[in-house]
Amino acid sequence: MLLSYQEIMDRANRGPYITEEDWDLEKVAMTTRRMVSKYKLEWDPEEIVPDDPALVDAVFEAGLELARELGAYSRTTERIIEFEPGELEEGMKRMPQTLVMGEGKDARTLYARRIMDERLPLVWAGNPGAPTPEHLFLPSVMSWMQEPIVDMVTCGTLTHVDGREVRTGDPIEIISTRRELLYMRQGLQRVGRPGMGMLAAQSSVSELGDLAVAHPDYLRPCDSHLVPMLNELKMDHRNVSRAVNSLEYGMRNASLPCVIVGGLGGDAPGSAVVNVASFIVSNLTCLSDYHLCHPIHMRHVATSTRSVMWVEAVVQMAFERNAPCIIVSDIYPKSGALTRELLYETAANAIAITVAGGHLEGCGSADGNAPNGTGLEARFMGEVGHAVARQGMTIKEANTLILKLLEKYEHVFDQPEGNAGVAFDQAYDLATLRPVPEWQAMYDEVKADVREMGLEALE
Amino acid sequence: MASEEKHLEEIKQAVIDGDSHASAQVTSDAVTDGVDPLIILNDGLMAGADVVGQRFEAGEYFLPELMLAGRALKAAMAVVEPLLQAKYSSGEADKGDTGVVVMATVQTDIHDIGKNIVASMLTATGFEVTDLGVDVPLKSIITKAQEIDANIIGCSALLTTSMPFMRDLIDLLDAMGERERFKVMVGGASVTPEFAEKIGADGTAPNAVDAVKLAKRLIRQQREAKGVS
Prior knowledge:
Oligomer: heterodimer
Number of domains of chain B: 2
Radius of gyration of chain A: 21 Å
Number of strands of chain A: 21
Number of strands of chain B: 5
Number of domains of chain A: 1
Largest sheet of chain A: 8 strands, parallel
Strand order of the largest sheet of chain B: 2-1-3-4-5
Shape of chain B: globular
CATH topology of chain A: TIM Barrel
Strand order of the largest sheet of chain A: 11-7-5-19-18-16-14-12
Largest interface: A-B, 37 and 28 residues
CATH superfamily of chain A: Monomethylamine methyltransferase MtmB
CATH architecture of chain A: Alpha-Beta Barrel
CATH architecture of the largest domain in chain B: 3-Layer(aba) Sandwich
Structural class of chain A: alpha/beta
Largest sheet of chain B: 5 strands, parallel
Shape of chain A: globular
Distance between the termini of chain B: 36 Å
Structural class of chain B: alpha/beta
Number of helices of chain B: 9
CATH superfamily of the largest domain in chain B: Cobalamin-binding domain
Helix content of chain B: 55-70%
Helix content of chain A: 40-55%
CATH class of chain A: Alpha Beta
């Protein structure tokens, strides 16, 4: 029988005490290092999607052993949440293989994808967490809601409401999260897709906003929200409150461990091990219905770096082969709207995720750090993912294409100023909600180029 | 008796290896053999820290190596610090361009990886860092800075909706008449130089390596302002 949440809270209150620094270094870093060595894990920066099932399985085994050995850390109580033999395995077994998101004619069924699956990945469009001024919020989310290829939507975080700065934990956070959901529901109505599923309450940076929108007028039970894990393998009571809030309301929980690649896990293999362990533990600590795979590059942030794409791919494949579950992987390119690099980064990331058995979420353009995302790159993300599946692309073919795409954008990681592009209102005509001609022309040009490079099914 | 050069090389290597036990031991051996503690600090410990910083910057070292080097440095400093303090009080040496830093993720924000990396880099390069953790009330940050007579307050926020609290910290320092006493560094994924300037901070840096450079520059400015060479 699955652990009750009260039992997990009891363990957080009575588990062994350890300082956070010792948890980070002695437990997470040192144990991960030992696992990488024990399982002889290495990665090849020239092979972004690992074409070696034994390596993939070893990453899974190492992650499972890490999760068994460590458990999770409660930052609130400074105690270790330990698990008994079999509990983590039971948590993996209960993970849904399908999940209906949204309602009515707009409902979509998320499913556990397979490696090189010819079924289309679902397209979850938006720039989760990107700071967005109120006047740009509705038009920007509508720019991706209106794209026919999009299955579900998400959004940025409101930075102001009614001219007032939003502050975490302040009563205004309740107002901003409710305002976000009002705009989301309004946007879906206006594009004629009112039942579309959402991953929202992105303006809820503490638990306040989340609690304030668990109501059918805002987030419906057919929607989902994030339950983050803290770096690495940590929870706190504030984030636990988000999960507990869903228990009776029945909303879906998406676990979000943003493993830092280059952080406590070290290089890509160790980070993948930590990510696998985080998903396994989050089945219980976050009451996950599905997982969001969003490793972050320690220096570049973006998911389109070689190491982060490798981690996303190997983690998806590890679960597909050993403990199938629904994984949606994030695309956070370094570049922003009205840059060619944004589209090349999106293509590379989408190819790696799709061929490795994930669904697509994005794009958090400009590192998700500015309101510089538009519906056009979300459309492109979906088109590339669909083309990969339709074409029946192999891992080998995917790797060849990704290496070509890397040549088109990898220089942005050496640009000290980044490549943030422009804000939404400079890339889209706000009156027509269409890309400005220059942005449309870049899209047409890059799309033709990617097709020419080998993605023949790109329509 | 080993040569000074050999001692310094062992100390440097212990920091690079992140070996706390070895760094304390070889530092102690060097002191016993009469190596000047300031030379141990600059040509052994700091030289090792420089290598760690370079390897981190080059992507050869990751966060654990940085944290281990910080621990190794701390262990060695416990040996040489009393000797150095004796020198400071007699005016034989100065602290160079390092100092005392209080670091915290400001109230309402619980993200700390960036702060931890900067804290580790500062520690690994010779700063004395008190890390107050995450979600720290502004008054607690200031109180700690006063208590330990810090040179720099380093505060961080990842969430854009927590960033305003960094401005509040500076406003509170102003209101308390303490703004001139501390240099304030701010950081976080969305923090830009423009934001730092707008809220009246003394600077920000895009990464941990540049944060150390900034901290050293601020220390030099502070010392110059006080007329200390």
